[in-house]
Specification:
Chain lengths: 393, 393, 393, 393
């Protein structure tokens, strides 16, 4: 049982995370998390805030002398720009200044629906929390989960499949090539030709005061068979991953394996046939069942099937446009242009990293449900037994 | 707070549902549920089991004299074919007969991953529960939720957008036209031209022993602003709907509003601009904010924004092929053809109805979180206050 | 992760349970559950309904050929008196007959608070669900949990400590003596002298139209060290057990180990000193830490400590008095005598069995959190490893 | 839906809380929380750490300009003694120093069971989180809940009923007298005679290196009818309160209303008879049902009944004795004296304040389930409607 809560406003003092339910003895240092925080911040088409941010985490509790101790993990990421916001975002009532109220909701954002729901006349009370800044906290959670999962040979990578309709051609690349090329690209995209076109499109969007979305793919290798369950709808791994990804700011679509394309094919062209390899055939240490294709994206019946998890999510363009859309002032009810908060042109490379985190949490949750356990050694031993069971089934 | 559990094997005696957290005083009779159970069973391309099934629900508890009373609702759907299964699915140990074991896992199903996870040598122990038969229970839950939501002017319809790559052309149809045409179609599809082509494709698939998937769209009208929340990832309405839909058997993709297409456009072509109409202008009873487009599919920042919810899900082709795929016997480890359980060619029309149910539950959950309340009158009064707040904001 | 929902009105057609999250391969037959249902029904001082009831469970799903298969378990207990209630408790609106409305709330019951909360003018809509009849369902859940736990040497017994202020003297009895004597007693009480006095008191109460409560103790032996956790308040085993027991109808107090008495002593007279026994000293198979006293009742810091769990709960007298208390008619607002539903004089023996069930569920939940696992064999192997870890710590 | 997580080790840098699910517009400033943090620290018989602590909270997020904004609330309490612990509790692996390991578990603490569960050879990894220091975080949560509930006329007080077997005589005091006397007492006890005896007992315990426990009572006035529910065991308010209190460090018993004493009486002497008062009779603004006694402690059938909630909990003596008990070194397995961490003699006054917090959270949770709502105004209006419904029932 692992769970987490995040807190923190976009321009507040800290982003804060508490993760409860981690086993003891996981090696964890701030560097393990900072690496993903930095990966989240890379990206052609991102605005100046990225330079201010340079996020760094502090581990406040749950770790002692390099290892988790079983108690709740608390992570804090300071806002480096806090000095400029401490009055505007002060908790003290004497700092109130309604003249600063944001009253022109941005189409595509939580601004209007949130103001109406919470009955707030200052949209800042909504946008500070709905901002994608919050994904920093989720990336931190994901980094912790990945530090745990990698002990079991479970690894994550992500890359940008398309931006603004320009798709990467990855047809001739292996997973490891995609991973390494994406990691080096400032668009997290493995196809250099596509990168050129996309950058031109981003430049065009920037010039026009417009924004772009795209598609990111997350791949998880080394996932053992048996995470998730078919027995009840809310225990299915694919459903949980879908929630986790769809809840990322600006995501409007999620697909697994062939996804929407599978709806266009005959069954005989979709389902991954089953094979069996003895240890000698396979040339690896373990015998077992396998597939030669992975159209299912690693999940059948809500259960991981031993193949890599492959999921994609579609991000709509950023909702804050420098050339603002039509809106209505919530106080005067007059037509106005939407407010402009400092923002980016395109955040799909960042989405890829956030997506890794979103998936990593759900894989960890399913993993801990399958294996239970309170310390890494205990879980490791159970995991080995599980692999043997698969081999000798 | 509403929650439910379902139980029941595909060929077991009953499918059973308990729903906990419904307010009192909702008019509810078996007919309200049977209507959707029947809608789920319609569909060109479905096999003979549909005729056996003719599902009918019994309401066992939670309703007295026509109304809910606040206590848990128990629904039971009997298996009309139970007489032929009572030994094969008996709970008694003396009925055990391992010669009946299913040992040839079907690609695309939970069969293999489930057998490995639960360490079962008879795949029937997996497939009985992973079967899409379970969606009957979920449709029953959805029907109850819809009976509640319609008191607040919230209505559902669904239709088939595409099967096997053949898409319906709906460009000239209003929602009400789509709804009424779909309801009359045995493919739940509003485009007659497409219907003809799809039927031909289904016939072809049948001849080849193959199967088909497709895309269903669910639309919910009358959803008030303010369901779901931006404040924490797991409270976002879009994320929850994504889980609910992705957890439906064979669904591999979910999108909301423009979905994946929004990733291909500029922001200025995606975000729904905001307008304001006074009561006179609008010609309806309520003044308020509105949009002229609905690319967001009714959800911004994880919160319903007053526009219809529009969600789509992609279903892969049915995994049980009459011309079976390659597999491996789990006992002998020898190559075999996959098992063949009686099944259908295409279930996308059914998916549409199941999708309504999946969405209806999540809308109800968010609705009850927003409005609380223990009896319908109490909730109704709060709902009216909410509408006034929106109007006078 | 194990969870359950129950449904069913006191005079409804069925009581129904769904338990989700049980591992596969647990031997389970109706007899295993019926045994505890029968134990729940024994008791001097119970009314005639017990004879009508003679509860018997049907296992509808989740078990095949004698064993659980991992899918949700559905249990149904039919109301043998349904024929006399099928109109009064009908779900059909045409059977409504407001002349039958119960309008005189019983002090001490949910009647009035429930009617006000759910805004119901017929108290039957409340009392049917608040009735202790529902504990039948919980006892069924407990019996399933016990069938699982006994595979790991975890055993339950319970007995009546006191009724109406008359306490059993157990000072010279071992656990096994208490257990066997209680099991044979129609008051589930191990002290024959106390039994005589209590029966006289029950007879007196009966004559006066009055009722009695008392104290039941539940003991669980064989609980391994390490269930529950200190790391977060809602994972503490003692807190969970307290909720489970306090939520049983009529329970007003819960204590663990020395309980309230520990508040009267010095620390040096309370805390259980720690010893260590090698395998030879101990004369058993396992070496390890131990205690010579068990004032903690088997839980320290929210974690089981290897000693038997010992918990007690106090039941107030039954709220339905044959000589009714003062009340107010909810329609007329006039003073009246409270309604009289058929009821018992004293249900403390039954509480003991219900308490076993309440504790059994929470022990199972904590057990599955510690060990995870999807099939009994897998869990058994992990459990053995755990015992070795304790031994070799 | 309100929930919270806490993090932080006893000697760690911060204690941290995230509360999710609070409505917007609650006035909240650090002073509101610090008041209860200070009340928690008062108490004759507490050790020196209290002076070091002088806890002060920082509100990091969820509040702007004096009010909550609907987003998660983050509270941080710094450890004023951190400078002396920053190496011993460092998260950096290079600071590891196994020579500091705590290896002598204290009877009565989580020390041994926790070390075995989490497989830790340094008991500090357990005791830092199991320490009652964590209750600071829970008191902060409670203070926030109380700030919310007091808008609805719901008020809390608590007092010490007994310490070490010496009971306060409160028979002639009204609630308000008990409350005000307790508040002024450094033992939070309303009976001055008892206070004298208790202080002498504490002095005696101190001299002997021993410790004491006792009983605290929490009273909540102004709780409206209808919080909690009878319909499912885990929604009963009494069950939830029992968990919340039993999960407080060192609590071994919980009772509501008459509690264990109700088990000794006849039903006619226990159940609170029901009366009705019109507005004129009552001399207050609201007509309605009422009781003249409150043996139920404000909860019937798991639902608040309009009378004050009255709950008590029993605390065992503190487990850290200056004259240590027998233990075993976990490394050498040799008999030793238990470790001595700096600690107190008696913490029952503190328990009373913690108990208020534990109950306040559960009342808030049930309140928000009943009333829903996202902003204070919305909830206030619903609450008023509810009161009218009760009046006009």
């Amino acid at each position: 049982m692992i769970r987490f809560l995040t807190a923190g406003e976009s321009h507040g003092r800290y982003l804060v995370v508490i993760i409860e339910g981690l086993p003891a003895d996981i090696l964890l240092q701030p560097e393990d998390i900072n690496r993903d925080l930095a990966r989240r911040q890379v990206g052609y088409g991102r605005g100046k805030r990225m330079e201010i941010e340079k996020d760094e985490v502090e581990i406040i509790s749950g770790v002692r002398w390099g290892k988790t101790i079983g108690s709740p993990l608390n992570l804090i990421v300071a806002n480096r720009d806090w000095v400029n916001w401490q009055e505007k975002m002060s908790i003290r009532k004497e700092d109130a200044d309604t003249s600063l109220a944001v009253t022109r909701p941005r189409p595509g954002h939580a601004d209007l629906a949130g103001a109406l729901k919470y009955n707030q006349k200052d949209i800042r009370h909504i946008l500070e929390r709905s901002s994608a800044r919050e994904t920093t906290a989720r990336v931190a959670v994901g980094a912790v989960c990945k530090a745990f999962l990698e002990k079991f040979g479970i690894h994550f990578f992500s890359h940008v499949k398309a931006i603004g309709g320009i798709s990467a051609d990855l047809s001739k690349l292996s997973y490891s090539e995609i991973a390494s090329r994406a990691e080096k690209s400032d668009l997290r995209c493995a196809d250099e030709e596509a990168v050129k076109k996309i950058k031109a499109l981003i430049d065009e969007a920037k010039k026009k005061g417009d924004t772009l979305g795209g598609i990111a793919e997350i791949v998880v290798t080394g996932v053992t068979t048996g995470l998730g369950s078919h027995v009840h709808w809310d225990r299915k791994l694919d459903g949980r991953i879908a929630q986790s990804l769809m809840s990322v700011q600006a995501v409007k679509g999620v697909e697994i394996g062939l996804g929407f394309e599978s709806a266009e094919r005959f069954g005989s062209q979709v389902h991954d046939e089953i094979f069996y390899q003895t240890s000698s055939e396979k040339g690896k240490s373990r015998a077992g069942f396998s597939h030669k294709t992975n159209n299912a994206g690693g999940i059948e019946g809500g259960i991981s099937n031993g193949e890599p998890l492959v999921v994609r999510c579609a991000m709509k363009p950023i909702a804050t446009l420098m050339k603002p859309l039509k809106s209505v002032d919530i106080l005067t009810k007059k037509p106005v242009e939407a407010a402009v908060e400092r923002s980016d042109i395109c955040r799909v490379p960042s989405l890829a990293v956030i997506g890794e985190a979103a998936v990593a949490f759900e894989v960890t949750r399913a993993f801990l449900e399958k294996f239970g356990g309170d310390s890494l050694g205990e879980i490791y031993s159970r995991y080995e037994d599980h692999l043997k069971t698969l081999e000798n089934f």
